[in-house]
Each structure stands twice: as structure tokens, then as C-alpha cells.
Amino acid sequence: MSTTKGLFGLQPLRQLGSGYNTTGSSEYNIANTLTVNIFKGDVVTMNNGFIQPIATTTDYIIGVFQGCSYIDPTTKQPTFSSFYAANTSSAVGNPKAFVVDDPAATFMVQADASVTIGDINSQNFPVTLGAGNTITGISGFGIKAAGRATTSKALRPLNVINEPGNSLSGADGAFPKVEVEIVQHWTKRFATA
Predict the structure, then answer these.
(1) Strands 78-81 and 96-100: what pairing?
(2) Which of 57, 116, 146, 189 suits a disulfide with 126, CB 3.0-4.6 Å?
(3) pTM to 2 decimals?
(4) pLDDT digits over 101-110, tens only?
(5) CA angle, 187 then 87 then 83, to 5°
(6) pLDDT at 193 over 50
């Protein structure tokens, strides 16, 4: 319900110009023993050839983290997880991140405060850098509603999610879920205005 703030990161919805999302993702390396958690739905960037969650709201975004795999150092067995636990190491190579990285992908995300109809397709928003949940593996990222601007920010809302109890007005509009596209996508980092 959008009357309660319960940030859950970004969930893949569709590809712009398409009817549904095939959740296509690419594989990237995570540094062995990276000292931060990466949760399902976290917005991630590249640092020295490795995936990590964005650290500032101005970072360029590779995509949205969907899970990881690694070879367990103790059992030597392939292990898959919906989140990367800090300091995880792989017995062979590096842990692998699965990231929805298509610049045309759209995502469902909850705002940390109200969003108006005037914000849709006209304002950009930074990401709320919330902490995820180590039990569920789900992200705590959302849209930082107070950061709306017409200048470049991480995300642009395209539409309100059509579900009962979710709207941009009234009590149901306190923390709305919206469809967004990534504005500060990694592929756009060298684009000129």
C-alpha cells in the first residue's frame, strides 16, 4: 500500500516500447570481499571494473542488481543468492552479479514521500540510499521525492503503478509506487547536452 513507506528497491517492469519485461540481465564481477552488501533492487555502478551499489546520488548507474553467484570457499559448491553479503569471497574467480542493465528498461519503485501528477515525465529524482534487509535480501532504495528537479538526476517517473491502494493523491498518495526509467545511465555518461 502506498500509505506506508516500505522501500523495496527497483523491480524490473518492461522495456520502453515493449509490452513486458524479459528481465534480461548481464553478468559483472564483484570484488572478492567487497565490504558492503548489495541487495536485490539496489542501483549499482562500476568502480575499477567491479559492480557496487551507488554511493552518492550523482553516480552513473549500470543497472539494477538482481542477485549473484560465487563458489563457496568452504564447500566448493556453486552458490546463488538474491543479495551479496559483505565480505563474501569466491573460491574461483570473483563473485558474479546479475544486473538488469538495458538503458531502455523501466522499473517499479516506491517514493519516500508524495509525488505529483506534474512530476510524471517532467521531473527527475535522486535515489534514496536506504539500507537493505539481510534476512529477505531486498533493497531499501527508493525515490527521494524532496530531490525533484528538471536537471539530471538518477530516475524519471513515467507513470503511476496501476494497483489498488496506489495513487498520486489523497491518503493513497503518501508513498506512491511509480514506473521509472534510469536517466543517469552508464551508457549516457559521455553524452553532451
Answers:
(1) unpaired
(2) 57
(3) 0.89
(4) 988 899 999 9
(5) 60
(6) no
